[in-house]
Structure formats: C-alpha cells, structure tokens
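User: Some background: our group keeps a shared notebook of sequences we're curious about, and every so often someone picks one and asks for a predicted structure to add to the entry. Today it's my turn. The entry only has the sequence so far, pasted here. Could you supply the structure so I can complete it?
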Amino acid sequence: MYFIYAILILLALFIIDVIARIYYGRKALHLIENLPSFDVEKIPPQKQAVPFEFQTTDQVTLRGSIYHPDEMPALGVILFCPEISSNHWSAVKYAQGLIDNGYIVVSFDFRNQGESDSLNGYQPMHWVTEYEVDDLEAAVKWIGDQDAFQNLPLGILGISRGGSTTLAALNRLSDIEFVAVDSSFTNDLLITHYLERWARVIVPSFLFKFYPLSQMRKTLDLAIWFSQYKRNCKYINSSNLFEGVSGKQVLMIVGAKDSYVPLRITKQLKKMLGELCFDLWVAPQTSHNGARESYPAEYDSRLVAFFHQMIVAQPATPVSKEVSASVASETEQLDNKNLATNLNENNG
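Assistant: Of course. Here's the predicted structure to add to the notebook entry:
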C-alpha cells in the first residue's frame, strides 16, 4: 500500500514539474523573443557611397555601400557590420573617422535587414544565429575577391549584434586580425544575465527551494530550442566561443550606462577573450551604442590608432608622406598596449 502511495506522490511531483516547466518555459520564451526597443537614428542614403551586392552560400542577395576616402590613397579596408535595428547607411555614423583617415569602409545589411533580401521563414532578432555568421563570411569573401582591394589589409568594425556576430565568427575568420566591437555580447552571456535578472521576478520565491538557477537554466534552454524551431534558425550559444582562437586583436567599446549590455557582461567578455582583447574602453556616462555620439573625437582616434596597426606590415601599400608620418608616430604609441591608457584612464 505504501508503495502505491509513493508511486502516486512521485507521479504527482512529476506532473507538477512538467506543468511548471511548461508554464515558466513559455514566460522564458516571451523574454527571449521580446526584442528590446532601441532608439536608433535613421541615416538617409549617402550620395558619396557606391552601392554593391553579393550572394551568400545559400543564394541570399545582400546589399550595402562602399565609402572611399577623399584625396588620399587607401590604407586599408574596414568591413562595417550594423546593429539589428539599423542598416548599412549607418556606417557614416560610426566609421566616418576611419573614412576621413584613409580607410575604405564596406558596409552591408545582413539578411532580412535593411536593403538585403529576406529568407522565408526566418525572423531575425538581437540574438546571433548561424545565418548572420554565414552572411559575414560571405561579405569577407566578397571583399577578398575584389581586385580593387588586393594588397589592402582588412579589419572589421561591428556595432551591437553586428559586433556580436563578428565575435561569434572569430574562429572562422582566419585572415582577419583586427576587430573592433561596440556594445557587443555573446548570446550565452546575455541569456545568463537575463536568467539572473528576471528569474526572481517571474518565479515565486518559494520555488527557488526546489528549482535552483541551474534547473531554471535547463528550462530556459528548452525555451531557446523551441525559439530556434519557431524562427527557423540556430542560435550560437557556445560558452567557449574563443577556444583555440589566436592571432587576433579585439578592441572593445562599451557605454558605462549601457542598460542593455551592462558593463558586467562586457568585463566577463573581456575575461573570456583573454590575450585576444587589445583593450576595453568604457565611455563614461554613455548608453548602448552611444560612445561615438558622446565622444566623437576620442572614438575616432581610438579606432584609427587601432586599425593603423594593420598597415605596419604593408610596405607595398601606397601611402602619402603625411599619412606615413602620422602612422609611424601612432605606431610607436601602440607598444605594450599603452595607447588606450594614454588617451583615457577610464578603461574597464
């Protein structure tokens, strides 16, 4: 008799557990798929830009624009990856300093974004998927195939999800050494942040005795799996994105008042990158993606100095005497990674 009672109790507990996981899994799904509201400035089409398009390996046509420096030889090429709620025209908002200092900027829209074609059944959000990484690889390949860009070093500047995509693709971008990311993250770090921040808001406190965060993470993982199925994609959720990655330099930029990608996440990301992280600049009193708007001169100076490292080993690239002198001067300041410290003491 006691055996039957025990079985019934276990069965009841199992049913309660399943119901609880389904209930809170649906709440977690809503949290995952709730795209934050970003106040993104709409940049109009730029007359000076040269439009271009290319195809991905699965035959999706992506479009973008190319910006050339005025009256000076090109020092290098920077691939610009925009944030989720913006488009390729936003390159002038973040990369104008690079254009003014001799870099060709190639900006493009990911699939289902801006002027690029859409993939049926896919609903893009702020999470990085295999689709965005594939698009980035296709853009890098397109640049490499252009005769006009031969012998020019290539770097990447990514904003928010654009930068996060670049970080997720680091182990696949063998020819890219210099990467700058602004307000970026990894899916795993941001999902963990959501769990820690919202679990006690969504789940009653008494349930924490039975469902610690580790168990709640399993429920969240089920919600993530269902979200992937629903949106016809695969999230890149690895917690070891940079394992085995070497020969890269990553400049990280974040706003001290970023409420979407808090500074704590960025510092965790810096720790994950280890020696790959060239520097972390924390822009004081600045929100998400707002560093250049708040500190345009310093933002541009940091990017230019960082990417100038690419051309040190490019003696065959035609450079004017004035630019050569500027590059030589700034290269000396890069020794021992002290440039950022000299520019600003607000590093994270």
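Suggested note for the entry: The longest strand covers residues 61-67. The radius of gyration is 23 Å.
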